[in-house]
Every structure is written in structure tokens, then in C-alpha cells.
Write a structure and sequence with these properties.
Blueprint (H helix, E strand, L loop, with lengths): L1 H9 L6 H8 L1 H11 L4 H22 L11 E5 L5 H14 L8 E4 L1 H4 L7 H12 L3 E5 L14 H14 L5 E6 L1 H10 L1 H6 L2 E5 L4 H14 L3 E2 L1 H15 L7 H21 L7 H5 E2 L1 H5 L2 H4 L15
Parallel strand pairs: 1-4, 1-5, 2-3, 3-4, 6-7
Helix pairs in contact: 3-4, 3-5, 7-8, 11-12, 11-13
Length: 313
């Protein structure tokens, strides 16, 4: 009788959901994601939806409304440089703040980290990676390379079987995110029904538009205490669509590389005019000439492209 009263008093009559939301501090993570990533509205919306699901599930448990732990394993598809790793990192923070994993850290791996080259090597490698990731998020980039049906002696399937078991039995303390190009991930899931059934959330990361890439460029420069001059900004706005039309374009990653080369040109320009006294703004500003010297403008090739016969900085 006393036990019944004790149990009954432990269950609240009402819970202030807003107070629960504020105490979780997940808004800080969502705000950080907004600052870090330009655009990607569908992706940010889905992450907020997952956060809402977890928050409500946590409140339900306080009312002793039991249910299975939500399946949170995910697949991120899209081209390089679209923010997949950043979103995975913030997802880990949200999971920790809502009590679904212990640490919330991110472990990023590829096939080489999971699959061995001889019999008996794959299982220890895969289990060691899982051990490091437990309590957080395991991010497997280009996950489709785990499965190579054309090679009968490939050990990737062994790694997949171990992952499947852990994804099912330890989903209350590990979230696995598979990432890669969409077409290749689709083929991977067609050949691995078990893996497909364990992935609850599929997020497709779109390429950035030229305008979004310009915003990203300005944010990257500001973070390093650089800026464009008016003419420099105009030149970079012309650079972006030209670079997007070339091979191996990697969205924000390609923008970062272009800015690094522009900073290199700026430094050399300032060094070669060292008789001039410099002020703070000189040291911060990328001019049009720092952008227009790229081979993308000269002959439609990338800086340092071996096909051009010239390695140009």
C-alpha cells in the first residue's frame, strides 16, 4: 500500500514542456547549426523534428509512458562539402543533452578503418571502432564501399554484420550515420536489406547555390579576420559559377580552398610591395587581383591542375 503511494507520488501531474526545452539547452545547438551552415532548410527542419521527438519522449518517460527507444540511425546523402559532418557533430550534442547517449562525441571513419585485409582482421578492427564510438555518433563516410559483391574474398560483409548487430542491440547508446553519394547509397541499401531496415532517417543534402556559396565565403573570411574589397567580392562572385562548372567541385570545401589560395596571393602581393607601409585594412583585404589570378579565369583549369602543365598558386 505504501509502495503504491510512493510510486504514484513520483509521477507528476503536469510538466512544463517549455521549461524542459529550456533546461535541455538544445536551442543552443540548433542556433549553432544555423550560424555554421548557410541554407539547408530541409536538413535543419529534420534535425529540429528529431530533437522534438526526443524531448517529448523524455517527458513521456517521466509520466511512465514507456515505449521503445526511437530508432535514430541515419543516412546522409549528398555531394562533398555540403555540411554532413557538421550536422552529425551537432546531432551528437543534441543526443547527449537529451540523455540518449553518454558522451555525444563524433567518430568519423571509412572502410579502411573497419575492414581488414586478411582473415580474422576485420572483426577486431570493427569492434575497436565501435568501442571508441559507443556513447556517441559513428559517422561512416562513403559507407557503400563496405560492400563489394564483385570480390568474393572481400571482408566488408563481416563488418556490416557486426554493425547491424550493434545498431539493433545498442541503439540506446550509439547512433550510426551512413554517408555518401545518393545514387551509390541507394544501390548499397538495395543490396543490404538489413541495413536499410535499421535506418530511420534519410537526409539528402542539396548543393549550395552561387549566392549561398558567396555568403559562406564571407563567413569563412570573417572567421579568419579577412574581408573582400568591393572589387574583390565582385571577382569572387564571378569565380564561383566558373568553379562550379569544373570537375571535383566540393561546395563549401572548394570555396575554402579557393580562399586559401587567394590569401596566399594576397600575402605575396603585399610582400612584393613591401616598400609600402601597411595598415590593418591592407592586411585584412582580398583584392580583385588576388582572385582573378586563378587559372579558372585564365584557361578554365584549376590552380595546380596537372593537365595545365603549370602548377600555379
Amino acid at each position: 500500500m505504501n509502495d503504491a503511494k510512493t510510486n504514484s507520488s513520483a509521477v507528476p501531474d503536469k510538466i512544463d514542456l517549455e521549461a524542459e526545452f529550456q533546461s535541455s539547452h538544445i536551442q543552443e545547438v540548433l542556433d549553432k547549426l544555423d550560424r555554421e551552415l548557410v541554407g539547408l532548410k530541409p536538413i535543419k527542419t529534420r534535425i529540429r523534428e528529431v530533437a522534438a521527438l526526443l524531448l517529448v519522449d523524455r517527458v513521456r518517460r517521466q509520466f511512465e509512458l514507456t515505449s521503445e527507444t526511437p530508432t535514430l540511425h541515419m543516412c546522409f546523402t549528398g555531394n562533398p562539402g555540403t555540411g554532413k559532418t557538421t550536422v552529425a557533430m551537432r546531432m551528437g550534442e543534441i543526443l547527449k543533452r537529451l540523455g540518449y547517449v553518454r558522451e555525444g562525441h563524433l567518430v568519423t571513419v571509412t572502410r579502411d578503418d573497419l575492414v581488414g585485409q586478411y582473415i580474422g582482421h576485420t572483426a577486431p578492427k570493427t569492434k575497436e571502432v565501435i568501442k571508441k564510438a559507443m556513447g556517441g555518433v559513428l559517422f561512416i563516410d562513403e559507407a557503400y564501399y563496405l560492400y563489394k559483391p564483385e570480390n568474393e574474398r572481400d571482408y566488408g560483409q563481416e563488418s556490416i554484420e557486426i554493425l547491424l548487430q550493434v545498431m539493433e542491440n545498442n541503439r540506446d547508446d550509439l547512433v550510426v550515420i551512413l554517408a555518401g553519394y545518393k545514387d551509390k547509397m541507394d544501390r548499397f541499401f538495395q543490396s543490404n536489406a538489413g541495413m536499410r531496415s535499421r535506418i530511420a532517417h534519410h537526409l539528402d543534402f542539396p548543393d549550395y547555390s552561387p549566392d549561398e556559396l558567396m555568403v559562406i565565403a564571407k563567413l569563412m573570411l570573417a572567421a579568419q579576420n579577412y574581408r573582400f574589397s568591393a572589387e574583390g567580392e565582385k571577382a569572387f562572385a564571378e569565380y564561383i559559377p566558373l568553379r562550379m562548372g569544373l570537375s571535383h567541385f566540393s561546395n563549401a570545401r572548394s570555396v575554402r580552398n579557393a580562399l586559401d589560395r587567394a590569401r596566399l596571393r594576397q600575402a605575396n602581393r603585399l610582400f612584393n610591395s613591401r616598400t609600402k607601409t601597411l595598415n590593418k585594412m591592407d592586411l585584412m583585404t582580398l583584392e580583385a587581383e588576388d582572385i582573378l589570378a586563378s587559372r579558372v579565369f585564365v584557361d578554365g583549369k584549376l590552380d595546380g591542375d596537372p593537365a595545365s602543365g603549370v602548377i600555379r598558386k
